[in-house]
Amino acid sequence: MARWTETWLTGADTDDSQAPPKWPGEKFGLPESGPGSVAGGFRRFAAFAVDLIAASLITALFLRPDVGDVEVMRSFNSAAILAWVVLTVPSAAFFGFTPGMALLGIRVGRLDGANSVGLWRAAVRCVLTVLLIPAAVRNVDGRGWHDRATGTIVVRMR
Which helix (H) or strand (E) holds 156? Predict the structure, then answer.
């Protein structure tokens, strides 16, 4: 399925005579393992979870969640999502990683070699991550729809 979605989404050449890549990121010139190699799904998910937990803890400093009150929980959840956006978009845009990514030793980079991801790419990645499916459906290079839409890839720092 990953190969099908890559071809369908990018409009890539469907010539099946090409050999499949030996490892994720090979076609981008990335190493097979170690620093600079494509980050695995576990690290990416764990970094996402760390960012969500951090955003929830920050929100809890200002709002008290009340599981019994639906309206309070709605406002808490909305505030937590806003805190997550404020926590992740600027840090990814200017530093190339979110707090969770830094903790897990991964970063997001542009495929065109530019130094920073940039604000619009970070914002688009964030919006598509909120939808979950674009981030979960990955191709053979470990890139989700949000990575392909923004020309980015997540790699290991260590």
Answer: strand 152-156
At 121, the amino acid letter reads: R
Per-residue pLDDT of the chain (158 residues; tens, 9 = 90+): 344 334 444 545 555 557 788 888 888 888 988 998 999 999 999 999 999 999 999 999 998 887 788 888 899 999 999 999 999 999 999 999 999 999 999 999 999 988 899 999 999 999 999 888 888 888 888 899 999 999 999 999 98
Question: Which residues neighbour 141 within 8 Å (Cβ) at sequence distance 6 or greater?
Answer: 6, 21, 24, 25, 27, 28, 38, 153
Q: For residue 143, what are the contacts with CB-CB under 8 A and spacing of at least 6?
A: 38, 152, 153, 154
Q: In Å, what is the CA distance from 35 to each residue of 80, 95, 111, 150, 155?
A: 32, 17, 16, 22, 7
Dist. CA 74–CA 57, nearest whole Å: 16
Distance CA 154, CA 26 (A): 14
Q: Where are the domains of the chain?
A: 33-156
